[in-house]
Amino acid sequence: DDTSFTVSGDQSDYTNTNLGDSAGDKKPLLFSVKVPANDKKSAITAILYDTPKFYPDKLTVEDFTSALAEQFTSPNRSKKAMMRVVSMVTEIKYAESTENVEFKSGKEIELKYSVKEEKPKAHYKMALKQSYECVFYNTDNDTWVTGEKSGCITKEEIGSNGEKLVSCQCSHMTSFAVLMSFDSDYDPLEETVTSILLGISLGCLFFTIIAYLPAKEMLRTRSVRINLLLVTSLMFSIIVFYFMELVVTTNVKENHVPLRTTLPPSLV
Asked: Is pLDDT at 133 greater than 90 in this prediction?
């Protein structure tokens, strides 16, 4: 028969947990697994880690806020999602097995994790999209494998105690975890184009004022004065916009903490 068990307890204190063969525990679920039986009806070995430090890799980050700040202020900005392990890391295998096991068609291991929710601070231009993904650890290149190559299907659920759960259905047995990722549709190219166009507009407005100055008779007319006031107001708005961008970006670089701000409606 298939083998299953659950681990329940306090997410902030992994030393106070209960191990059982059903999900009837009143404590919040931390982890559960259901493993299909092999031909030998082997016992299942499960090792649970409350930290991913034993699984080093170059893809995940330790702190979302700092990573997002670095991504925003870096000269070579990219749209690469920030990822971090937010669940227990579990190593599941048959007792006598020393290698990863690939299941036959129709069989899969079912895992369920309680995940830690995070709300990082980000620059107001970076509208963040949060997602979860079940992954496995590739010991050949020390990397968490994501996407279709992971062999896992991810589903999000809410537990009986209101805890956030992520369910994984995988076609093999190895070391698993859940990655939380934050992605943004922020495009630095759009900001660069906007800055260039605003600079061109500022230059054109400046030359408009220069063109009016020699025509002293025209300066006395009401329509020209109104035009000059409008041109001056637009120049002032663009200069204030550039100044605010400079202040915000400088604060991010110096404090290494992104700021979530909004432009005043009057300036817009």
From this structure: yes
Q: Cα(259)–Cα(218) distance, rounded to whole angstroms?
A: 47
**Contact assessment for residue 178 and residue 117, using Cβ atoms and an 8 Å cutoff:** no
What is the distance between the alpha carbons of residues 14 and 3, in angstroms, rounded to a whole number? 23
Q: Do residues 246 and 259 make contact, with C-beta atoms less than 8 angstroms apart? A: no
pTM of the predicted model over 0.90: no
> Which residues make Cβ contacts (< 8 Å) with residue 57, sequence separation at least 6?
137, 142, 143, 144
From CA 12, how far away is CA 6, in angstroms rounded?
Answer: 17
Q: Is residue 133 within 8 Å of residue 156, measured between CB atoms?
A: no
CA distance 210 to 207: 5
In the block, which residue shows the tokens 């915000």?
248
pLDDT value at position 44?
Answer: 82
In terms of phi and psi (left: phi > 0; alpha: psi -120 to 50; beta: otherwise), the region of 68 is: alpha
Residue type, 222: R
Instruction: List the beta bridge partners of residue 153.
Output: 169
Q: For a pLDDT cut of 70, what percent of the chain falls above it?
A: 77
**Closest by CA position to 44, among listed 88, 109, 89, 118:** 109
Ordered DSSP codes for 108-163: -EEEEEE---------TT--EEEEEEEEEEETTTTEEE-GGGG-EEEEEEE-TTS-
What is the CB neighbour count within 10 angstroms for residue 86?
A: 21
- Residue 176 scores a pLDDT above 70: yes
* Residue linked to tokens 């295998």: 93
Kind and range of the H or E run holding 251:
helix 222-255
